[in-house]
Amino acid sequence: MADTPRVPSTLEARSITLGYDERKVVDGLTVTLPPGRVSVIVGANGSGKSTLLRGLARLLKPSSGSVLLDGQDLRSLPSRAVARTIGLLPQSPVPPGGITVAELVGRGRYPHQGWFRRWTPGDDAAVAEALRVTDTLSFADRSVDELSGGQRQRVWIALALAQQTDILLLDEPTTFLDVAHQVEVLDLITDLNRGSGTTVAMVLHDLNLAARYADHLIVLKDGRLAAQGPPAAVVTPGLVREVFGLVCTVIADPVAGTPLVVPVGRHHTAPVPAGAGTGAAS
């Protein structure tokens, strides 16, 4: 008998308000992560991107509204069950002192352990594969403290991958990486999504990379939803000016065909060459 196709989990926020102490950062926001797709959250600094991700990961309790996992309030579910479904790479995580790369990545398997379920060859295989695809296998026995910022970031991504969750939340996964490794990591995340149907939501600062890799863009401004949808429908000169305060033209990326934001700037105000276009790519 053929295997039953896996139904991706659904994660959504309904009218959530999030903040710190008395400071409101996200205000009455409703978003749904399209199951089995890659969503990218963008916005200016301070717009609430990381705060929204923390709310979706149950690290931050909404002061109003709710986050639902497959229709159930996230806060009502057991922590281990949530950890088996939602993986998180937070912003600037701090490793325990003296821990090796392999040991840190192995912690991604903890949600799969239990009173009667110990470490198995399957756990070894999951850790080895996470190390391999993030190109960190060669320094698996080194202390995380010895690594460069870029190497350390790839190790944290390996930990998230080793968790093998249905939903993966990534807060600035390309931090500390040079351009080549940024593209490598985003290609890796895309492969994971396409190969296993993992639902991905990540925060990125680079709008052009976001437009290239996202199936679904979520654009925030001052803690509220400014726009959402496919990049080709969302990324326009008007939206970029409204949300980022940047005068630009938007052309088709010559490699990916996705929207490419070209800043104008005070010293480069010449008209766009004929045929380059000023709207989002179709």
Structure description:
It comes from Arthrobacter crusticola. Pfam families: ABC_tran. This protein has 282 residues and is α/β, with parallel strands linked by helices. It has helices spanning 49-56, 79-85, 101-106, 121-133, 149-162, 179-196, 207-213, 231-234, 237-244; strands at residues 11-20, 23-33, 38-43, 64-69, 72-73, 86-89, 167-171, 199-203, 216-221, 224-229, 248-252, 259-263. It folds into two domains: 11-234, P-loop containing nucleotide triphosphate hydrolases (Rossmann fold); 236-282, no CATH class. It has nine helices and twelve strands. A six-stranded mixed sheet has the order 6-7-8-3-9-10, with helices on both faces. The radius of gyration is 20 Å and the shape is globular.
